Amino acid sequence: MKPPSTDTEKPTFSETVKECYPDRSDDQVTGILFSYCAQWGRDYRFAEVPVDQNGRSMGYSLSLEDPKFTEYVGWLDEYLLALDAEPETEQIGLCRYVADAEPEDAMFILGKNAALHQFDAEWVEMAIENGMSFEEYYKENEVSFVKYWKSCCEDLPQDEFPLAKFIEDERKFFERVLWEMGQKEKFCPHVRHADAGYRIPLSIALKKEKNKEERINLLKLFYHYYNTYSDK
Questions:
Q1: Percent of the chain beyond pLDDT 90?
Q2: How many CB atoms are closer than 10 A to CB 23?
Q3: What's the CA angle centered on 203, arms 197 and 208, to 5 degrees?
Q4: pTM for this structure?
């Protein structure tokens, strides 16, 4: 039997999250937890956007209260409801968590992930655009990388997360971003919308909601979380 808690014991992070979502199942809480410690990359295969009468992409960089943004998410809602596609390998796990989640939780997971992945990817994108290999990129940023690795190991014995493993993970992330850049150039070179790389998981979440107005609000919630975490 687990001994009773004492005042000096601190709850684990997972216990804290569970307390914040008391009506969620363990699987639903797991998806929320993973949004704090994992990132899922972008899939640009279904990233088309409508254009206005001047040929400009609708909906980009507008206030969530702008009527033109509401028009864009209204179009996006219809597009996502009609979307029927299998997720790319990188997003299979993400889609599984989204399928288990309440729709509003899914918007949190997706909006947060889109913002944090974009922030980390931008540094790699700049290096690639400057013609750098991973080895050159790592060497140029080695001091920062090692400092970050040490911070990751603060609560772990270093043999559980050796530097070599950390470097290999960074190499895989570099290669993932390189692949994403190629996909974006192929399918949607001029699209900059945050939702563009997450159309399949967004579609899975929206199809749980029957009411169109509520689906519009969910898409705005995705952008709310995206904007919130982009500003951090």
A1: 66
A2: 6
A3: 150
A4: 0.86
